Amino acid sequence: MKGLIIKSILFGLIILVSISAGVTPTNIPESKIVTLADDGQTVTLKVNETFLLELGEGYDWNITVADQSIVSRVVNILVVRGAQGIYRAHKEGSSTLSAIGDPVCRQALPPCAAPSRVFRIYVVVAGAPKTPAFEVLSAILTIMAALIVKRK
Asked: What are phi and psi of 56, to 5 degrees?
C-alpha cells in the first residue's frame, strides 16, 4: 500500500512538472536506461538528454568517461539501488563510457576468485539542445522508470 501511495505522489509530481513546463503526455520523451544488455552498443543522445546507467548490484563498478565535456555523470542525484548514476549529454560529439566491475564477493572473508566484468558503451551526441524544463522532466522520468522496473 505504501509503495502505491509513493508511486501516485511521484506520478502527480510528474504531471505537475509537465503542465508547468507546457508538456503534454503525448510529447514526453522516452527515458533511456542503459543496462548490461547494452554492452558494446552505441547510445545516441541529443544535447541535454540524460540516461540512467543501471549495471546492477552484483559488482562494485568503477566508471570512466573518456571525454566528460561530451557526456558526464550528473552529481548530487540519488539513484535507485543497483544504478551507477544519471549521465547527461553536454555537446555534440562522441565519447566512450567504460566500467570495470569487481564482484561484490571479493569483499567477503575469505574473498572469492570470481573474475571482474568489463562493460563499454559508445555515446554519440547530436541534435539541438532541449529546453531546461525537459532536463528536469527527463531526470524525473528516468528515475521513475528505474523505480517501476526495479519493483517488478
From this structure: 100, 175
